[in-house]
Specification:
The complex is a heterotrimer of chains A (338), B (367) and C (521). With 367 residues, chain B is an all-alpha fold. Chain B contains 15 helices and no strands. Chain B has a single domain, classed as MetI-like (MetI-like fold, Orthogonal Bundle). In chain B, 78% of the residues lie in helices and 0% in strands. In chain B, α11 packs across α13. The model of chain B has no long low-confidence stretch (mean pLDDT 83). In chain C, strands 1, 8, 9, 10, 11, 12, 13, 16 and 17 form a 9-stranded mixed β-sheet that branches. A 4-stranded antiparallel β-sheet of chain C has the order 4-5-7-6. A two-stranded antiparallel ribbon of chain C has the order 2-3. About 1% of the residues of chain C have low confidence. The chains are: A alpha/beta (338), B mainly alpha (367), C alpha+beta (521). The interface between B and C is large, with 51 and 52 residues.
């Protein structure tokens, strides 16, 4: 399934996002670099507040104006962070679109469904007549299983699953290259969620679009994604193909995270792992590796120096001193067999 | 049946209201229908209570209509005669029942002064003037207030926002008669571009064929462009004064609501689809913010009428408010009772309408 | 974007249209004068009206039997050119002059006058009581003669018939058995103007009566529009702004003072106006004591009130009869001096048994707004003046007008403040009302003196002016001696006009504004 020959769609380099708050700057994303390939599904997982949503928004520059963003987000060779307002408007929706967590609140309550779609088309193609736009969306809407007669309804008249389909159709209507699905299934019940996942897969295949799935639900990623990026406290802890990361998690945080997922086969003797401690306060993140206060395998160097996200195998990158050399480090560096 | 102009206006506007309610009823969902039904049924006891309260208030306030009309020179026999005529000798409950009976027949009694004309006739001459003043004032207030509120929300915490907020507080707290005077002095005297008082130029007035007594409408219907210009010209200052006082409330509410709407997910979602910021503010956020504003229009209607009383006095605008002030001065109890009744009923009807409009335009409303 | 521009252009056009509409010169060949008033029309029925403004309109539309000589309070011929009284004084014969025509061209006949007077006698209008008090019957022996029988002889009857109830009305205008306060078509008469359009809340439009007997001056207006204002402030702004040409009654003191300083406006003081006086209720302690009333008359300093409170805009009044009327004079100065005389007052009070330990205490009432907001200041000064002696303790009280005027005239207060404006322009109307024993009770004064009644009755039925003048002089001396009421001041009316359009206006002491005598530029 995984193909190394895939072309890179988005290159994220040294991305820093700092929110300004009354308590001081919050380092929500810190020095993050990774790629998103064309046609892949990349799962971005982490606990609440780890910066994964910020990351998604940063890709579209949807963060509040007062936020500091540094680094590069190269999309099709152009740096999104240097876009003018006009370029940005054109870029949003047409090149990248976003599916939000709550489809109820993400649709304008006083705007009809078809109007949402037509407006989205007309924003980017002002010369399109409304009738043309309507005929364009017809196929898409049908493909997504939205009944034709419901298309003139208001959002509140639709079911949760139907609204989420509407959100997807809004994301797809302009054939973007990347869809960011930010906790897109959180508000759905399990059965609807399963259906939704199937559809997402099919869409990916049909439209050849890349998807960045942002979620705290690691099971969802296992089911859906080609690759997984584990985020902790604003940094990527581990990044790799689903198979390698789930079969052989390297970062102590990933290990903990996987052990804490309940399985349906759970019997009485098996006890769920509870990770000690709390995620750090990002106004004053811990020095060195941000995970070190909670890390079961902590070393002296961890609190002094910040590790980097480095390849340990061709399919797996990890951000941990266990796998990296440093002059001050006394333990041996672990080599991972490919 | 002989229909007086006031009954015509009342029945006409009630008819329009009814048409709207029926329209909403037919177009609406079953939930909306039962809501409309409940709301209409609830209005009836409210109107009844209003009518009753007005009756009893008019009888407990100090002062005596007989003395105020006959003056000190009236003999006891004249007083007795007048009391009999006004039905003041009946037991209060009998008076009350008679009063209710008359109201049902749209008979508000006759004036105690100035020719003892039927109140209904007098009000039907005055009501069009008030309508002509208040509707443009409301339109200006809502239009300017809502748009500038959205503008302030868009430029939140910038200079223009602070300026508009300051303006809204000032506009809200300025007494309308004082503002009217200032406008008269500035536009009427200083710049000399607007007339001080009245509804139309007296000379042009002579040739204006009055049908509805809403002068702009009459001028339009008869194609009398000079009269239209003059009527609009005279409307300028009073409607501006009245509108300014109302603007503040709408500006504040619109600003707050747009600001609240702007942090909603659907705005972020819209932004993520590349929709322009201006469109997000003025179409998406504002259309949602408008819903509570519609309710406010209903609530502000009573403020509008109160403001109209003072505005009409300041600009010698011969509408209901001026009539009320004149007749209070002359202790014309039946006239005062009539005006209060018309005001109270129109507030009741408007609030009914705004509630139904609210339910109708907000698809989410729970009945 | 395009739509925004359209909206902008549209709104600019509307604004421009509104502004232009205001600036565009009215294509006007008719010379129109617009007069602003804060008064209002109460009734346009000749047989009912009993208010100054109604009478003003009527006098411009119609002519009574006798009429004021323009610019004076003297009465001369109206539609009647001459009149004589029977030997017993009970019957007056008026001879109508020729040439009086209504706007439709028809001639005035004596029956037209009989019609109005008979309606006034028969119907219960506002003027009914007055007419009934003087007139027993009326007939027209021929088209040019009117004979009126009286209830009692009246020497001032020619003055009395200058009231509007003797104005002729054409047949069919007013029904015989009903008052019509607002006739559908307005009113017409044989006067200089005809009412072509009116709306009691907004305006009255008068145009020339083409058949007016006396004709019009070369610069008289072709059309007069009376515009009704709610308050003096907006009326004063309107005359300043040019919305109206003339601001007439009632301009307040602050408005006239302000307008006087504006170039392009002329502020004219008219000869006439209302009087203000203190009612001393002689039916109640302590005002039943003549010493007390005289002491108060000694203590009052009218100049101080006029200067300090009214800043010289009104004139002090030393008798009830205002200047310009027969036998008017300064009787209270002659009796009590011009300023305050505390020692004379104290002597009188001590004589009545008052002392520092037992001061004269009474309630003094005034209405807070009806006579202008400066009433409160007048009464503060008045309280100081009365309390200049420790023998007096004044308790100031105020009450809103409706209750006040009733109480003041109905024996409920010890002392209060009222105004008076004449019904017909004669000295008798300034004295009978207060001092004649029957009428005095109605005014809440309760003065009764046979000497006074004799003087007033004799003067009333006397037709020789010289004899009347001396009788009224005696009556006023007695009035001052007995302090029936205390005259305080005389409020002169002001009229303001724009020099741009108006050269002059003519308003005499009788406060009659003859619109045809307006001289336009």
């Amino acid at each position: 399934m995984m193909d190394n020959e895939k072309e890179v769609l988005v290159e994220i380099r040294d991305l820093d996002v700092r929110y300004k708050t009354r308590l001081g700057p919050v380092s929500a994303v810190d020095d993050v670099s990774f790629d998103i390939f064309q046609g892949e599904i990349l799962g971005l997982v982490g606990e609440s507040g780890c910066g994964k949503s910020t990351m998604g928004k940063a890709l579209m520059r949807l963060l509040p104006p007062a936020t500091d963003i540094h680094g590069k987000v190269i999309f099709d060779g152009a740096d999104v962070l240097t876009f003018s307002e006009d370029q940005l408007r054109d870029f949003r929706g047409r090149r990248i679109s976003m599916i939000f967590q709550d489809p109820m609140t993400s649709l304008n309550p006083v705007q009809r469904i078809d109007n949402h779609l037509v407006e989205t088309i007309q924003v980017h193609e002002p010369d399109t007549k409304e009738t043309d736009a309507l005929s364009r969306i017809r196929g898409l809407v049908e493909r997504l299983g939205i009944q034709k007669e419901r298309i003139e309804d208001f959002p509140h008249q639709l079911s949760g699953g139907m609204r989420q389909r509407v959100m997807i159709s809004l994301g797809l209507v302009l054939n973007p290259s990347l869809i960011i699905a930010d906790e897109a299934t959180t508000s759905l019940d399990v059965i609807v969620e399963a259906k939704f996942l199937d559809e997402l897969r099919e869409i990916l295949d049909e439209f050849g679009v890349s998807i960045l799935v942002i979620t705290h639900n690691i099971a969802l990623v296992a089911e859906l994604a080609d690759r997984i990026a584990v985020m902790y406290a604003g940094r990527i802890a581990e990044l790799g193909s689903i198979y390698s990361v789930f079969d052989n998690p390297l970062h102590p945080y990933t290990k903990g995270l996987l052990q804490s997922v309940p399985s349906i086969k759970l019997d009485e003797r098996e006890v769920l792992y509870k990770m000690p401690g709390e995620p750090p306060n990002l106004t004053h993140p811990p020095p060195g590796c941000r995970f070190h206060p909670r890390c079961p395998e902590v070393m002296p160097i961890c609190s002094n120096h910040t590790p980097s996200l480095l390849h340990v195998t061709s399919k797996q990158m990890v951000n941990c001193w266990l796998y990296q050399d440093h002059p001050e480090k006394d333990q041996p560096t672990i080599e991972v067999a490919t | 049946m002989n229909i007086s102009p006031l009954s015509g206006i009342c029945l006409g506007s009630l008819g329009i209201a009814l048409l709207f309610i029926i329209f909403a009823f037919l177009r609406g969902s079953p939930g909306l229908r039962s809501y409309i039904l409940t709301r209409v049924v609830l209005t009836l006891p409210m109107v009844f209570i209003l009518v009753t309260v007005i009756f009893f208030i008019m009888r407990v306030i100090p002062g005596d209509p007989v003395t105020s009309q006959l003056g000190p020179r009236g003999t006891e026999a004249q007083r007795e005669h007048m009391r009999e005529q006004l039905g003041l000798n009946d037991p209060i409950m009998v008076q009350y029942v008679k009063y209710l009976g008359k109201i049902v027949r749209l008979d508000l009694g006759t004036a105690l002064v100035l020719g003892n004309r039927p109140i209904v006739d007098e009000l039907s001459e005055r009501l069009p003037a008030t309508i002509e003043l208040t509707i443009p004032a409301m339109v200006i207030a809502v239009g300017f207030g809502v748009l500038s509120g959205a503008y302030a929300a868009q430029h939140r915490k910038k200079g223009v926002d602070y300026g508009l907020r300051l303006f809204s507080i000032a506009a809200y707290s300025i007494p309308v008669f004082w503002l009217g005077l200032i406008l008269q002095v500035v536009f009427g005297i200083g710049l000399n571009i607007a007339p001080i008082a009245g509804r139309i130029d007296p000379v042009i007035n002579i040739d204006l064929n009055r049908m509805t007594n809403i002068l702009t409408l009459d001028a339009l219907l008869t194609g009398n462009w000079r009269a239209l210009g003059s009527a609009l010209h005279h409307l300028f200052l009073p409607s501006l004064a009245l509108a300014t006082v109302l603007t503040g409330v709408f500006l504040r509410l619109s600003r707050i609501n747009v600001i609240e709407s702007l942090v909603e997910d659907y705005i972020t979602a819209g932004r993520a689809r590349g929709i322009r910021e201006r469109v997000l503010v003025y179409r998406h956020a504002l259309s949602n913010a408008l819903i509570p504003i519609v309710t406010l229009i209903g609530l502000q209607f009573s403020v509008l009428l109160a403001g109209a009383i003072l505005t009409e006095t300041t600009f010698s605008w011969p509408g209901m408010g001026l009539y009320l002030v004149e007749r209070i001065g002359q202790r014309d109890y039946t006239a005062v009772q009539g005006v209060i009744l018309v005001f109270a009923l129109s507030v009741a009807v408007i609030s009914l309408l705004t509630d139904i409009i609210y339910a109708f335009i907000d698809p989410r409303v729970r009945y | 974007m395009k739509r925004h521009k359209l909206v902008l252009i549209a709104s600019l056009l509307v604004i421009a249209a509104v502004v232009l509409a205001g600036c565009a010169p009215a294509e006007e060949e008719v010379k129109t004068v617009i007069i602003g008033v804060t008064d209002e029309i109460s009734s346009l029925d000749f047989s009912d009206a009993y208010s100054t403004h109604d009478w003003e309109l009527m006098r411009n539309v119609n002519v009574p039997l006798t009429d004021y000589i323009p610019g004076s309070a003297e009465v001369g011929p109206g539609i009647a050119e001459s009149w004589e009284v029977s030997a017993d004084g009970m019957s007056w014969t008026f001879h109508l002059s020729d040439g009086w025509k209504y706007p439709d061209g028809s001639e005035l006949v004596a029956a037209d006058v009989v019609r109005t007077v008979e309606r006034a006698l028969a119907l219960d209008g506002d003027i009914h009581g007055v007419v009934e008090g003087y007139i027993a019957g009326i007939e027209a022996p021929d088209d040019r003669t009117v004979v009126i029988d009286l209830v009692n002889p009246r020497g001032d009857f020619p003055q009395i018939v200058s009231m509007a109830f003797t104005m002729p009305a054409q047949e069919g205008v007013f029904p015989a058995d009903e008052l019509v306060f607002f006739p559908e078509e307005g009113i017409v008469g044989v006067g200089p103007w005809q009412m072509v359009d009116y709306d009691p809340a907004e305006q009255v439009v008068l145009e020339r009566n083409p058949n007016y007997k006396k004709g019009f001056g070369p610069d008289a207006p072709d059309r007069v529009i009376i515009r009704y204002f709610e308050d003096a402030t907006s009326m004063s702004l309107a005359v300043e702004n040019g919305d109206i040409d003339i601001a007439w009654r009632f301009l307040g003191i602050p408005e006239t003072q302000r307008l006087a300083g504006i170039p392009g406006l002329s502020v004219i003081t008219t000869g006439g106006g209302g009087i203000r006086y203190l009612v001393l209720n002689e039916n109640r302690e302590p005002m039943s004591d003549k010493n007390v009333r005289q002491a108060l008359a000694y203590l009052l300093d009218r100049d101080e009130i006029v200067d300090r409170v009214m800043q010289g805009t009104v004139d002090p009044l030393y008798t009830m009869v205002p200047p310009g009327f027969m036998a008017a004079g300064e009787y209270f100065i002659d009796r009590y001096g011009a300023g305050a005389d505390v020692s004379s007052a104290e002597d009188l009070l001590r004589a009545s048994g008052y002392s520092e330990d037992n001061p004269l205490a009474f309630d003094l009432w005034y209405p807070p707004e009806h006579y202008g907001t400066h009433a409160a200041q007048i009464f503060q000064v008045l309280e100081q003046q009365f309390e200049a002696t420790p023998l007096i303790q004044v308790n100031l009280q105020s009450q809103e007008w409706g209750t006040y005027v009733k109480a003041c005239t109905a024996d409920e207060y010890q002392a209060c403040y009222l105004g008076w404006f004449f019904d017909y322009p004669d000295t008798s109307n300034y004295l009978d009302v207060f001092a004649e024993s029957a009428m005095s009770d109605d005014m809440g004064i309760f003065y009764a003196s046979e000497t006074m009644d004799d003087l007033l009755h004799t003067a009333g039925s006397e037709s020789d002016p010289a004899v009347r003048e001396s009788l009224y002089t005696d009556a006023q001396e007695l009035y001052a001696e007995d302090v029936v009421t205390i005259p305080m001041h005389f409020e002169v009316e002001k009229v303001v006009f724009r020099d741009e359009t108006v050269s002059s206006v003519s308003i005499g002491p009788a406060l009659i504004f003859d619109y045809e005598l307006i001289v336009m530029k």
